[in-house]
Amino acid sequence: MAADADVHQVVRWDSYNVITRRALLQTLACTVAAGGGVTAADLRDETRRAYDEYAARATQRFVERVRNGTVAKPEARASRDRDVLVSPAGEDGILSIPDGLVHHWTGSTVIRDVSLQDALDVSYDYDNYRAIYKPVIASRLLGRDGNTFRVRLRIKESSGGLSATLDVTSRIEYSYPDDRDVYSIATSDEIREIRDAGTASERSLPSGHDSGYLWRATTFNYLASRDGGVFVESEALGLSRRFPPFLTWFIEPIARRLGRASVERSLRDFSQAVAARARQRDKKD
Question: Which CATH number do you get for residue 121?
Answer without folding.
Answer: 3.30.530.20
